[in-house]
Amino acid sequence: MADEQIIVDIQVDSKEVKTAENRVDELTDSIEELGNRIATARKQNKQFKKDQQDLNKLYKDGAISSDKYEKEVDKLNTKIKTNNKVIAESSVELSKQKRERTSNIKLINSETNSLAQLEAKASLLNKAITNQTTATKEGREEYARLNEELGETNTQINEQRLAFNDSTKNIGKYKDSLKGA
User: Fold this and answer.
1) CA distances for 144 relative to 9, 58, 61, angstroms
2) Separation CA 95–CA 20 (nearest Å)
3) More confident residue, 157 or 85
């Protein structure tokens, strides 16, 4: 028999995928927490600004002294600046974590039997079949094996496309969906 040649060798490093999946979960929780922190700080700033308006009214009406007014305004301004710093830092961290999460999701998808990976495998198999000689018995056997593997890969691709199309392309085909019910 002819020497076996590996045409497509796609292996999944399950440890790397599991690490990425765990990191995605951690990042999702952290992103939610950062979003909540930003929302809380913005809400507090809105209230502080309302409190400043109330202080301005009290001061204009003569209900509080200028010393008390200045102290209260300084306190509110300090709180607003602190919150603005929290918002800025959290926003930067949020962006970093979203990028890292996207990166990990891409890694997970590239390491699994994704449609893109299957299509790449089919392309490699097509090239191998095109270059395979059928002049010898071993060549014909290899050609048959490659054809069979390509058929299986194409079946997987079609199944994934069908599953994808079934869930997204039925928009507006409600009457057709009810016929089967």
Assistant:
1) 18, 90, 94
2) 18
3) 85
Q: Which one, of 11, 23, 12, 10, lies nearest residue 104 by Cα?
A: 23
> Average model confidence (pLDDT) for the chain?
81
DSSP string, the chain: -PPP--S------HHHHHHHHHHHHHHHHHHHHHHHHHHHHHHHHHHHHHHHHHHHHHHHHTSS-HHHHHHHHHHHHHHHHHHHHHHHHHHHHHHHHHHHHHHHHHHHHHHTT-HHHHHHHHHHHHHHHHH---SSHHHHHHHHHHHHHHHHHHHHHHHHHHHHHHHHS-TT-HHHHHHT-
Smallest CA-to-CA distance from 43 within 79, 70, 78, 71 is with: 79
In this prediction, residue 135 carries a pLDDT of 80
- Supply the pTM of this predicted model: 0.56
Q: What amino acid occupies position 21?
A: E
In angstroms, the Cα distances linking 108 to 11, 16, 111, 126 are: 12, 9, 5, 26
| Nearest in space to 143 (alpha carbons), one of 156, 130, 159, 161 | 130
Q: Is 180 exposed, middle or buried (0-12, 13-18, 19+ CB in 10 A)?
A: exposed
Contact criterion met (CB below 8 Å) for 41 and 83: yes
